[in-house]
Each structure stands twice: as C-alpha cells, then as structure tokens.
Amino acid sequence: MIEDDFYRTSSQFRLWSFTEESLRTVRQKTNSLASDRVRIALRRAREARQSANSSAAGTPNPNGSDADSKAGEEKDIECLTSEEEQDLVRYYCEQIIQLGESYKPPMPSIVRATAIQYLRRFYLTNSPMTYHPKTIMPCALFIATKTDNYYMSLRQFADGVPGDTTAEDIIAPEFLVMQSLRFTFDVRHPFRGLEGGIMELNAISQGLGEPAPHLPNQSAEDLRRAILSLPPPLNTPSPPSISDRLARAHHNTREILKSAAQMTDAYFLYTPSQIWLSALSLADAPLAQFYLDTKLPNPTESEHPLAQLRAKLLQTLSSCATLLQSYKPLGSDPEQKKAMRRIGKKLYHCQNPEKVNLAGQKRIPAAAAAAIASAAGNPSDTPTPDSEMERLAKKRKLEAEQQKAGNDIFGGDLVMERTRDRQA
Amino acid sequence: MAVSPLAPQSFQSRASEEVADREITEQMNDEVRHKYIKAKKLGEGTYAVVYLGHIRTDPTSFVAIKKIKVNTEYRDGLSMDAIREVKYLQELSHPNVIALHDVFSSKDQNLNLVLEYLPRGDLEMLIKDSDIHYGAADVKAWMGMLTRGIWFCHENFVLHRDIKPNNLLIASDGEVKLADFGLARSFADPYSNMTHQVITRWYRPPELLYGARQYSGAVDIWSVGMVFAELLLRVPFVAGNSDLDQITKICEAFGTPTEENWPGVSKLPNFIPADNNHTVPTQGREFFLRQFPTAGSVGADLLMSMCSLDPRKRSTAYQALQHSWWTAEPRPTNKEYLPRKSGGTRKMGDDLTRRGGELDDQFKNAARQLDFGSMKG
C-alpha cells in the first residue's frame, strides 16, 4: 500500500473532496433550496400574522384577493447568493482564528484549522440563511477541541467566548453540526507533511539526505551541494545560511497554511501534500522545485510516463498556488469589510424565521423528552405551531428592536467587540 | 412546492409539510437510517445499547447497531468515547478492524453506529472456556490477525490504547476484528503530551505505569504481547490488583527496569527506583521458552520482542509481521477451522456496550475512567 491508497480511504477524500464544478453544484443546490425555504417560511409567517389580525378584526380574508400584494412582497425577499454565503462563511472562519487566539494559552493552530474546516463543510449543505454562522461558529470550535485532543470543559470554553453567549447556546447546535459533518471528524491537514518535508530538507543540507526510490543514484553529498547552490527565493535578500533559509521557508509556508489554505477551497480541491507543496512554492519557489526534483526525475522525452506525471503534478500545484494567492484577509481590505456589512444587512432580512430556534433546541434524550411531554399532558414532543409562531414573532420583534437600537449587523460581532475593547 | 395557507386548524397538513421540509443533511440522515431495521436488543450497558439489525432490503445481512446513550452526567455534548470511536472507525477500513458501515441519528438525537455483525464472541471467551481446546497453530492464526489489525492502525497514525482479549471480536468466518476505539487517538506531534491513563491495567506497558506522557505504538505492542502470552497460558500473564502491584508483577516477570536496560526510565514522572535487594535481571530467551513452551523457540522470540521493557527496543507492528514465526511450522490454522463457541451474539452485545478501559463485570473494582484533566498538554 502506498500513501495515496491510505489517503483514498480517508473520509476527507471519500466525502469532502470535489472538483471545482461539483463544488459549485453542491453550493448552488444548497443556496437555491434554502432560498425557496426562506421565501416560503417568510410568507407563512406573514400569513399567520395576517390571519391572526383578520380573525381578530372579524373580517374574512378571501383567498386570491391579496395575490398581487403577495407576489409583490415575495419579490422583496432578496436572498443571499451562493457567493455572498461563501463570503459570510469566510468571515466567520476568520473569527475562529481570532476566538482561538483569545484563549490563554491560545488554542493550537491545528484545533482552529479543524474548526474552520468543520464550518466550511457544514455550509456546503446548509445555508447561512437557515443557520446563522454566529451560532454555528463557536460550536464548531468546541467540537474541534474535543476531536483534536485539546480538551477543555464547555464552561471553560464558554467563558472565553465574548458577549452573552452561554454554554447552552454553544452546545445547542452540536448534533446538527455533527450530522452535517456526516459524523466524520478527522481532518487531514497539510501541517504534518510540511514538518516532514522541512526535516528532510534539513537532513539534506547537513549531508544526511537519502536517495528517493526513483533516483537511486543520488548521493547525500550531491544533494547537499545542490541545495547549497540553489538560487535565492524571488524578491527576497539572499539568506545568510541554508538553515536560515529553511527556517524562513518553514515559517512563511506555515503562515500560508494557517491562513490562505484555511480560508479558500484548498482542502476541498487538493490533497494535503499538494497544499503544502504549493504553499512552499509560494514561500520559496527554488526550494520547492528542488524538493520535487529530489523525488521525481525530469526525463527529457515528454512521452515518458514520469514526465507526464510531473507535468500533471506541476499544473496541479500551480493552480493550487494561484488559489492560495487569491486570499486577502478581511481586516486588510476596506472594500471587503464594506461588502460584509452589506451582506450582513441582507441576511437579516432573509434569515429563515422557522429555523431561528432550531439551533437553540436542546439535545434532549428521548426519555427526558417523553417525561416532559407527559408532564405537560401533551403526547407530542413538538411544540404546537401556535405557540411556536408566537415565540418566533416575539423573537423577531426583539431582534428588530435591537437592530433599531443600533446594534451592529451580526448581532454581537466578535471582531467589532474586540476592536472596541482595544480602543477603550 | 405547493404551500397551503396556514389556518390554525390545519395542524395535519403542516405536520406532513414538515416532513417534506427536511433539510439536506436531515434527508441524507433519513436515507441512511432507512437502510436498516433494528430487530432485537443484544445487550445494554451504561454507555450504549446494542441491537441486532439487518439491511432493510436483505433480512439475511446482519449488522449490529450500537446506540450511544446520552450521558446525563456529562454536560459537554457528545462524550469523548463516542467521538473517538466514530472518528477513528470512519477512517480505518481493514479486514482485522471492526467495520463501521454507517452512522445515523435517530429522531431523539441519539447516535447510532452501524457496525459489522460479529456473532462469534471474542478471544476472552475462548481463552476462558476450558471445554475449548486449541493449539499453537490456532494461536498463530489469531495473533496474525491481531497484529495485522494493529499494524494498520499504526500505519494510519492511530493508537488503539485498549487492546485486550475481550476487545478482539470474532466474525462468523473466524476473522479476528479489533473493536472498541473509545480510547483511541492519533499519534501526538513530537513534544506534545498525551494521557498515561489508558489501556486496561493487565495489558498496560511499564512506560504508562511510570506516567510517560510521550509514547508511541509501542504501548499497543506491549498489549499485543500480553494477549499473546494469555492465549498461550489461558490466564492473564501479569494481573496486578493495583497499578503499583502491576509494576511489581511486571518487574518480577520481565526484570527490573534500570538506566542500563532502559536509558531514561528513571526520569519518568512516576518511576519507582528498585529496591537494590530485589532487582530481577532482564529475562532472556530461556525464560520465555520455559514460560511459554507451546510457542516454540521462534514464537518465544517474537513474544520477547513484544515485551521489551524499553519501548524503544520493543518491536513495531511492522517488525513483528516480518518475524520468522509466521512462516515457521506449524502453519496458522485457516480461519474457517479455528475453534469456535456458541453464545457469541450475546457476548458481542456485552462487548460493545462497555466503555473504553473497563474490565468485565467480575473486575468492576478495577474499572477506571479517563482522567480528562491530565490530557491537556
């Protein structure tokens, strides 16, 4: 068995790898389904209000008479586009980095990276219009602490979440998130591969390199000489020594893996080794090229199977590198910030009212639920539509008031709070 | 989608609408859940209930459905045992690792694991049943399957951390399957810590008893060695009644750990320096051959390599698989002809409802819980 075979058995490959085309299709489907649902739900809510009003006024409300206004109002419900959804999710992925940073000690990058991938996977089949990312994000991070062996109690975790988010709020959507992750928790990150590659390069630079299977004639000394005579990386001053160069490449590659690799579709489209090699090529192109050359010969005739493999690999790496380069952090881009405010405002008007409380539903064991239901004299454990509607109407009213009161668009936005803190 | 206007009395139509209104992920879950039928209960423990089930379209293809109970004591969501088990079984697909066919949630938000049906009990059952006779060829077959299973885990960077005879279940064709991944985790990155409170005591290696926080697949190999010894002796080889007693018994059996035979051992957190009057020299090949005559000299050599006190000198799963014992006479028994015992279905029910690290009921006093506080680096 070679490493690729192992990777192909992973859930990341089986369930969470896509082509650009299939990824777009999945998101499009999620978006259009959620948009339909939002329109229906908002109409249902409005009709409930109207019928309540009309029955209170004692006037019958014949069907059809308000058809025109119905169509008119429906057009008013402007839903998020798939692109807007992605921008919003990316914003909350950045929030995960910040939230993780705020703990003492800060959470390991790997835990944050896992949480980001959970959030990204979650929003492949769920829309922010259905479940607001502000409720899902902390839960994704808490699940990651559990799955990545960085155990802390929910209480401890909740204390670190700014605002009035309670432990119950955080844990409430856990089951929903896990179900959307299709109960796969393992995320294959590019970090470990990078560590291995840097160790190999260090060994080579010290004359301890080992020949690759395809290149049995390499000697440790040849490899050492070759790495020492590499041209310097583009646009950077020549590093004082090879160990400095490797340390710098290591650091810069890691930074790319912690940011751009998390915030783009890299994990969905490429394997962990493709990702870290592409990131290394951005940090130090000649070094990445050299590393590949130690593994893969470069036959002159283009028909050679190894030459074709190499061409294919280089093309994949270069498109992955382009993707990684496309990432611009929100904080450094006023245009994006402006766009985010607009999307947030838009989301406020197209949030599915029937799902607002779903994330707030407690995970009740069957027995307990039955006990509650029987105590209440209600055989069903679902709330009645009437009381539910009332509750939702209240909740929306409350939210609308908060909105008027000048609360910002995301209702307790972490970054904003943090900057306020800093300024204070 | 047609939407009927919602009048207060149209309760019924709204309920049916809600079914059609399922979210994408709910629909996917429904599809999985619908594939299986739960038949009868096989066993119930504090941690889970196990049902016999089958595929809806094929009543002859059995599965075991393990429904994880919600732990009311644990308020932090899904328990770590369940998370670990699901996380690792989702990734490991090998003939000697219990197969996780599917995971779904039932409507009360309980987690259901659809596992391979293993109706022939476990190795503990066979070891304890004095009516069952087995020989070196049978032991070799079982050990081969166990070692391949653990090799595959380690190759995927997964430590099992609870290998013992009653976690080694037997399929209807005689194949041994490594089960219960409730204590499993992936290898830690260099320099980061793990908990030492893992592996049921009798199968726990000396480095964990001494409190090592950085360890490798060697911990599982020690357990594999202990299972090997137990298969040969038909009783647990080193059965301490406390952690301290376990260390004492290991020293008596295999030798006293010293800086000479295990460099660095004295720096482990819970290391107990040996009483100079009671040191036991490290046991050599003759000891293993004398203790385990049925293994033959080649088999004793393999066992010895798995029971090295110093984890760095212990064989890896890969090295163990390359040992000459596997190809020496007698050849391993074909799995179809291995000794079998009835009543395995109930045993599977019991095995799958245990929490990780628990001993069977008769050893209840020895059962431990994971110390989560000590897990953080």
Automatic annotation (TrEMBL), chain A:
Residues 94-179 form the Cyclin-like domain. InterPro entries: Cyclin-like_dom, Cyclin-like_sf, Cyclin/Ssn8, Cyclin_C_2, Cyclin_N. Residues 388-402, 415-424 have a biased composition (Basic and acidic residues). Pfam families: Cyclin_C_2, Cyclin_N. Residues 49-73, 371-424 are annotated as: Disordered. GO terms for biological process: regulation of transcription by RNA polymerase II. Residues 50-66 have a biased composition (Polar residues). GO terms for molecular function: cyclin-dependent protein serine/threonine kinase regulator activity. SMART domains: CYCLIN. Keywords: Cyclin, Repressor. The keyword Repressor applies. Belongs to the cyclin family. Cyclin C subfamily. Component of the SRB8-11 complex, a regulatory module of the Mediator complex. Component of the SRB8-11 complex. The SRB8-11 complex is a regulatory module of the Mediator complex which is itself involved in regulation of basal and activated RNA polymerase II-dependent transcription. The SRB8-11 complex may be involved in the transcriptional repression of a subset of genes regulated by Mediator. It may inhibit the association of the Mediator complex with RNA polymerase II to form the holoenzyme complex. The SRB8-11 complex phosphorylates the C-terminal domain (CTD) of the largest subunit of RNA polymerase II. PANTHER family: CYCLIN. This is RNA polymerase II holoenzyme cyclin-like subunit. It comes from Aspergillus mulundensis. The lineage of its organism: Eukaryota, Fungi, Dikarya, Ascomycota, Pezizomycotina.
UniProtKB/TrEMBL annotation, chain B:
The lineage of its organism: Eukaryota, Fungi, Dikarya, Ascomycota, Pezizomycotina. It catalyses: L-threonyl-[protein] + ATP = O-phospho-L-threonyl-[protein] + ADP + H(+); L-seryl-[protein] + ATP = O-phospho-L-seryl-[protein] + ADP + H(+). One of its GO terms (biological process) is positive regulation of transcription elongation by RNA polymerase II. Gene3D superfamilies: Phosphorylase Kinase, domain 1, Transferase(Phosphotransferase) domain 1. It comes from Aspergillus mulundensis. This is Protein kinase domain-containing protein. The active site is at residue 162. The keyword Ribonucleoprotein does not apply. ATP binds at residues 42-50, 66-67. PROSITE patterns: PROTEIN_KINASE_ATP, PROTEIN_KINASE_DOM, PROTEIN_KINASE_ST. Residues 15-24, 347-363 have a biased composition (Basic and acidic residues). Keywords: ATP-binding, Kinase, Nucleotide-binding, Phosphoprotein, Serine/threonine-protein kinase, Transferase. Residues 36-326 form the Protein kinase domain.
